[in-house]
Amino acid sequence: APRTPTATSGPASRPPWAVDPLFAERYAPDKTSTVVSKHSQPAMLTPMQNRSSIVQAAQQAPEGPGRTPLCYKCNKVIRGRYLVALGHYYHPEEFTCCQCRKMLDEGGFFEEKGSIFCPKCYDTRYAPSCAKCKKKITGEVMHALKMTWHVQCFTCAACKTPIRNRAFYMEEGQPYCERDYEKMFGTKCRGCDFKIDAGDRFLEALGFSWHDTCFVCAICQTNLEGKTFYSKKDKPLCKSHAFSHV
């Protein structure tokens, strides 16, 4: 007995897009725009497939668009290899950089404001410039002083070590790591030999800096802040011990 079209399967049967003029419209993928994002993974390329395998797949599951891919760019049925990217299907030769037209079947890609870029074109157009060397930053970006830097360009002026996310201080327009800044510019208390931190109350006397609580008589420990004092061998003395031996 002759076989009817509904009972046939395999490459010998006519595919549904050949007999149904509304097939492409009914199985068109969603065309909503995607959010701006960076894609570090390359678009997925399907294995080599011949026309027979595509026809069979389309006939085996006509109810789902995943088995009968339509190219998002040209809206035609894909009967060979295809790419899956941004939630859509593409002919490999039609998923290209919007500037250099290079195929993006490998190596990753970027999407910016609805346009697709290869990494090289994206960096040329959108990558920030380094405040020091003025070159484009294509890798890790350092944000400091309201500017962008290569990590290797934003370094301590003394030890030349990249500062990265560590604390730093500015002195005469140059950044210094905390260790070198304290060593070169830090102020120590003459009385306790500890650093005078920002916000600490201190005073200047005898050519040195002192915590307000450390400026005391060397003999009786009376606090001398705001009082008349005497000195002997760079040591402060109260009025009562002005002539004492220290």
Automatic annotation (TrEMBL):
Any GO molecular function: muscle alpha-actinin binding
LIM zinc-binding domain: residues covered: 69-127, 128-187, 188-246
Listed InterPro entries: PDZ-LIM_domain, Znf_LIM
Keyword set, alphabetical order: Cytoplasm, Cytoskeleton, LIM domain, Metal-binding, Repeat, Zinc
Compartments, record wording: Cytoplasm, Cytoskeleton
Record bears the keyword Flavoprotein: no
One annotated Gene Ontology cellular component of this protein: stress fiber
PANTHER family, A to Z: PDZ AND LIM DOMAIN PROTEIN 7, PDZ AND LIM DOMAIN PROTEIN ZASP
Protein name according to UniProt: PDLI7 protein
